[in-house]
Amino acid sequence: MTGDELADLLSSGDVAVLDVRTHEEFAGLSGYPCDPYQGHIEGAAHLDLNELYPVAGDHDAIRRYLAERGIAEGRPVVVYCHSGQRSELAAALLRAAGIDAVNYPGSWHEWSRRKPPA
To answer: Which residues contact 86 (CB under 8 A, 6 or more apart)?
Structure first.
């Protein structure tokens, strides 16, 4: 999945987006100097991979975590982090729980090169 494909999905409302970086990264309080700006994809839900990993295999807990973050069951989920590594693991955990999840490999590193929100 590319950034343009994700932008199209976001504009159609056909997908949920899940950021699995740390709270500080999601909030724009920390990040990597290679990124033009810090923050998150507008409309993304947040679930730190460190919270998701301990419940790996507990499909009910994973679904509950997503529901608590406003991600409805049955809705496809695009997962991202900074560079696509944490999000690939998270997407695999979600798929194992029966959730239609895909990794956005460009993740924040690519997305932050798009025009920042106003």
So the answer is: 20, 21, 49
pLDDT in tens, 44-71: 999 999 999 999 999 999 999 999 999 9
Q: What is the identity of the amino acid at 91?
A: A
Give the CATH number, domain containing residue 21: 3.40.250.10
- Domain region containing 57: 3-111
CA distance 60 to 53: 14
Q: Give how many domains the chain has, as a whole number.
A: 1
The answer to whether residue 117 is domain-embedded is no
pTM as predicted: 0.94
Q: Cβ(78)–Cβ(6) under 8 Å?
A: yes
DSSP code of residue 116: P
> What does the pLDDT look like over 90-103, one tens digit per residue?
999 999 999 999 99
